[in-house]
Amino acid sequence: MLSNMNSFERVVEYCEGIEQEQLDEDASGYLHWPSKGEIEIRNLTLAYHSKPDTDIIKDLHISIQAGEKIGVVGRTGSGKSTLAMSFFRLFEPKRGTIIIDDHDIRTVCLQALRRNISIISQEANVFTGTIRYNLTLGDFADEIIWQALDVVGLKSYVSELPQKLDHELTTNGGNLSFGQCQLLCLARVILRKPKVLILDEANSSIDLEADQKIQEVLRTHLKDTTVISIAHRLNSIADFDRVLVLEDGAMREYDSPYNLLLNDSSQFAEMVKSSGSSNARAIMEIARLQQK
């Protein structure tokens, strides 16, 4: 097992349908992949292993430029998280594929795939060990670790702990708030500097302050990273490049937030309206400024 895989990836490694031989393949040929973060999802159709005849993602075809920020929304059961997990080959396609920097991910060994693409999920991907171990597993000097903690707003908190970077965390970060756990995961991402980052409802259970910090870091320190965000809070994707709206596993809409909000028949516009008039006005203004 790769020592620098986060807890989500540790679970994924053992999922049904994955051959152990694929995990043992040589990852050395992918040390610098992906180098840009260009993504093309080509006619992707996915189904659960237990229900192969029920398509969860249906013939999805979109292109994402390097560094773009893409929000993914849809009602419960629309296939959002399934799409996120497909980037780690938890689900092998029935048809179609995902291309990242001209590589079909089905041809990339799993170790390289899961090492080189980062995810922050809605679960607390923190495991038993020191803060230093959780962030780097020995790969970075303390000075670099402190810089990453400073970026995510945790430097002061950690520096006040008696053991600082050697402070022991319990399973799932039980001695941290959930927001702190997610910010710790974000610091891990900053250290790894991935070209592709998946956010699977990462802000669904955190306070507003932690959410705002995540959004700030995405727009500054991760501005060149391609981000696909399964969004819980619509405000967090209002200034993204585009929004993908899924309905029953199929693409219903794919456009800039502002263009979608101008369309009265847009499902995204309806979701924004449902969030309350004051919030809807704020989202519209953010989207309008981004469109300029």
From TrEMBL:
Major localisation: membrane
GO cellular component, one term: fungal-type vacuole membrane
Superkingdom of the organism of origin: Eukaryota
Record keyword Transport present: yes
Pfam families membership: ABC_tran
SUPFAM superfamilies referenced in this protein's UniProt entry, alphabetically: P-loop containing nucleoside triphosphate hydrolases
Keyword line: ATP-binding, Membrane, Nucleotide-binding, Repeat, Transmembrane, Transmembrane helix, Transport
GO molecular function (one): ATP hydrolysis activity
UniProt keyword Transport present: yes
InterPro entries the UniProt entry points to: AAA+_ATPase, ABC_transporter-like_ATP-bd, ABC_transporter-like_CS, ABC_transporter_C-like, P-loop_NTPase
Bilayer disposition of the protein: Multi-pass membrane protein
Subcellular location: Vacuole membrane
PANTHER family xref list: ATP-BINDING CASSETTE SUB-FAMILY C (PTHR24223), MULTIDRUG-RESISTANCE LIKE PROTEIN 1, ISOFORM I (PTHR24223:SF443)
Protein name: Multidrug resistance-associated protein 1
Annotated organism of origin: Boothiomyces macroporosus
Protein's gene: ABCC1_5
